[in-house]
Design brief:
Elements: H1 4-11, E1 25-33, E2 38-46, E3 51-59, E4 63-64, E5 71-77, E6 83-89, E7 98-102, H2 105-117, H3 148-159
Antiparallel strand pairs: 1-2, 2-3, 3-7, 4-6, 5-6
C-alpha cells in the first residue's frame, strides 16, 4: 500500500496535480482508531457545481496516552463512558500509507480501480461497464492518483497542521 507522496509521484505520469484548483473545504472531522493504528479525515469539498464527501485514511499511525511533541489531541471515552484525551502522531504524506475515497465521477472513472488494486481504496470498488467504445479508456495503465477534491482536503489538512 503506497503513501500519499508515492501516489502523487505515480499520478504525475498521467496528470500533474499542481494543475488542480484548490476548492473550499466546508468541513472536516477526524476519526482516530488506536486499535487499528488509523486516522481518517472526512471532509466536504465544494466543487464547481456540488459538494463532495471526501475521505483520507492514514495507516500505521502512532498513538499515545500522553501529550507529546508532534502529536494531535483527540477526545474519546474510557470504559465507563467518561470523556478522556488521547493523542496521535501527525500523519506524514511521505511516510504513512494512505487510502482514499471521493464521490465525484473523476475519482470513480480515473482513480478508483487503480487504488483498489493497490489496497488504497476506502470501501469497495464499484464495478461498471463502459457505455462507449468510440473513445479510449481514461486510465488504461491503471496509474494511481486522486481528484481535485482530495487534493483540496489534503491542502486544508496541511494548512491546519494535521498532516506533514
Amino acid at each position: 500500500m503506497p503513501t500519499f507522496r508515492e501516489i502523487t509521484d505515480e499520478m504525475k505520469k498521467l496528470r500533474d496535480p499542481s494543475i488542480y484548483a484548490n476548492y473550499q473545504v466546508r468541513t472536516f472531522v477526524t476519526q482516530a482508531s488506536p486499535g487499528t493504528k488509523q486516522v481518517m479525515y472526512k471532509g466536504t469539498v465544494q466543487g464547481e457545481e456540488m459538494e463532495y464527501p471526501v475521505y483520507v485514511q492514514f495507516r500505521q499511525v502512532e498513538f499515545s496516552d500522553e501529550e507529546k511533541e508532534g502529536f494531535v489531541p483527540y477526545e474519546t471515552k474510557d470504559r465507563e463512558g467518561n470523556p478522556i484525551m488521547k493523542y496521535y502522531k501527525i500523519p506524514e504524506l511521505d511516510h504513512n500509507n494512505v487510502a482514499l475515497k471521493c464521490q465525484c465521477s473523476d475519482f470513480r472513472f480515473f482513480w478508483e480501480f487503480p487504488l483498489y488494486r493497490v489496497g488504497s481504496l476506502i470501501g469497495s470498488f464499484r464495478r461498471y461497464v463502459r457505455k462507449t467504445t468510440t473513445r479510449p479508456p481514461k486510465n488504461p495503465d491503471n496509474i494511481v492518483g486522486y481528484c481535485k477534491h482530495l487534493f483540496s482536503l489534503i491542502q486544508a489538512l496541511k494548512a491546519s497542521n494535521l498532516v506533514k
